[in-house]
């Protein structure tokens, strides 16, 4: 593989950057002492479920660089998304507000026109003297948020670089838009994600002694389509690919609302009929391996960086992914596979390195956690809970549960041992993860579990606003303004 610097030289143009002075100092706790506020390296990997080595979601998945990152900090092994779809999950994480509070439930919901006053994580850091910059998918593709950034690559209006090779199409013959997978004969350096990482690496190599940074890196794969260089497919020979068990009767105890979400007659039926199941799993594993290689490049740059000892790393994925479990594919559901995500936080000076926290937490908790870690002003509207007590003591008592929402009034509650699901029509599911980690047996109809269900119902959001669509007049005005800017 060509050197990273050679790849960067061929694909990046970096404009001049405007420097501002650090807004203030952070009290260190000792009398009269102070230290600079920590930098933040904010890493997102799209559509990554628990198929990472440390979380053991798939027996064949190998992610040495992600595991290397996790070993530097605290890995939250029971972290769940606020919504199992790109747009609502990312809006919730970046604004700190639940989908049930904002009405942003689905991918087509344009969020900024209906939340014009929301202050995102990078905006809050800007208000405290940080330079906010980044590249790649942090917001949903259709709705980048220029107000969040001082600088973004390729541009404030475009989050992702394009692949620099001929992109295949419908290789699997399913004719389902980008629901496709194939090896491509191209070097890593020609992928859009490499260009994103190269930009972020370049920023880590800069001198930041005069100003702290909030630096975001959004890696697109393993989002569909699973087109990645052939070397990553070759790590998982097709004849050896392991398919996870999917009982034929797994939907028999699921209420109609859950079956409607699973859509067994859609993607799953098509994949089984076409004989593409093993190839699909191979494609997902290969795409994870590809993302892992890029994480390695980021970590190498972080370890070389003079800012290393004063930088917080946050690593997250927006939601999980099904590959046939519950006869379901993609996200868009409330079971474990669609909602469990890797979350790791690396603290400066290697504090709590290698710790694993098993408390049930949520991506909503990232915003208030960063506020405390970086000593920023509190934001009372945030609906997450700071993870600082768990960063200080990963075994600390945690009297909370994690809530995921998919559409209005459809919720899952994940506690330490249980998953409870309640649909808008009042139907329910309950799974005991102590004995049923794959969620094969729905216990909701059994009388002896009424108490458990009642305990979990108290975590359901009290507020469930209607899905919100931007006012068309406001949207037209916004587009007209952009056209003249």
Describe the fold and architecture.
The protein is of the alpha/beta class. The protein has 15 helices and 19 strands. Strands 3, 4, 5, 6, 8, 10, 13, 14 and 15 form a nine-stranded mixed beta sheet that branches. It has a four-stranded antiparallel beta sheet with strand order 16-17-18-19, with helices on one face. A two-stranded antiparallel sheet has the order 1-2. Helix 6 (192-204) packs parallel to helix 10. The longest helix has 28 residues, at 277-304. The chain is globular, with a radius of gyration of 22 Å. The chain starts with a helix and ends with a helix. Residues 1-34 and 479-485 have low confidence and may be disordered.
Task: Give a brief description.
With 485 residues, the protein is an alpha/beta fold.
Note the main attributes of this structure.
single chain; alpha/beta; Alkaline Phosphatase, subunit A; globular
């Amino acid at each position: 593989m060509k050197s990273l610097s050679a790849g960067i030289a061929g694909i990046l143009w970096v404009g001049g950057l405007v420097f501002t002075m650090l807004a203030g100092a952070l009290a260190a706790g000792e009398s009269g002492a102070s230290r600079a506020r920590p930098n933040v390296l904010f890493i997102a990997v799209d559509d990554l479920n628990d198929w990472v080595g440390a979380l053991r979601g798939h027996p064949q998945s190998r992610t040495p660089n992600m595991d290397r990152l996790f070993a530097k900090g605290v890995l939250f092994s029971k972290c769940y998304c606020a919504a199992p779809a790109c747009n609502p999950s990312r809006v919730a994480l970046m604004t700190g507000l639940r989908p049930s509070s904002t009405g942003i439930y689905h991918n087509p919901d344009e969020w900024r026109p209906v939340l014009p006053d929301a202050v995102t994580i990078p905006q809050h850091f800007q208000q405290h003297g940080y330079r906010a910059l980044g590249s790649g998918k942090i917001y949903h593709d259709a709705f980048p948020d220029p107000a969040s950034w001082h600088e973004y690559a390729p541009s404030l209006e475009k989050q992702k670089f394009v692949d620099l090779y001929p992109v295949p199409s419908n290789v699997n013959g399913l004719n389902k838009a980008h629901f496709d997978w194939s090896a491509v004969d191209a070097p890593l350096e020609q992928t859009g994600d490499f260009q994103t990482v190269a930009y972020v690496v370049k920023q880590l190599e800069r001198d930041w002694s005069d100003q702290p940074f909030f630096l975001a890196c959004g890696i697109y794969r393993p989002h569909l389509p699973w087109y990645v260089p052939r070397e990553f497919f070759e790590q998982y020979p097709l004849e050896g690919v392991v398919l996870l068990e999917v009982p034929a009767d797994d939907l028999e105890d699921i209420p109609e609302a859950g079956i409607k979400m699973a859509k067994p007659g859609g993607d799953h039926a098509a994949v089984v009929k076409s004989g593409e199941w093993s190839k699909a799993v191979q494609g997902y594993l290969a795409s994870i391996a590809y993302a892992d290689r890029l994480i390695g490049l980021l970590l190498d740059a972080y370890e070389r960086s003079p800012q290393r000892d004063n930088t917080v790393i946050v690593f997250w994925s927006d939601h999980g992914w099904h590959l046939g479990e519950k006869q379901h594919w993609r996200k868009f559901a409330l079971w474990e596979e669609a909602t469990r995500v890797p979350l790791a936080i690396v603290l400066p000076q290697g504090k709590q390195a290698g710790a694993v926290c098993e408390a049930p937490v949520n991506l909503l908790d990232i915003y208030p956690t960063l506020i405390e870690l970086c000593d920023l002003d509190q934001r009372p509207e945030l609906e997450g809970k700071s993870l600082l007590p768990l960063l200080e003591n990963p075994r600390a008592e945690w009297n909370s549960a994690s809530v995921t929402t998919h559409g209005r009034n459809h919720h899952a509650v994940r506690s330490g041992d249980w998953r409870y699901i309640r649909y808008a029509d009042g139907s329910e599911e309950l799974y005991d993860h102590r004995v049923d980690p794959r969620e094969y047996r729905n216990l909701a109809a059994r009388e002896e579990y009424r108490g458990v269900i009642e305990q979990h119902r108290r975590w359901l959001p009290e507020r469930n606003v209607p899905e919100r669509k931007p006012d068309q007049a406001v949207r037209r005005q916004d587009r007209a303004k952009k056209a003249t800017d």
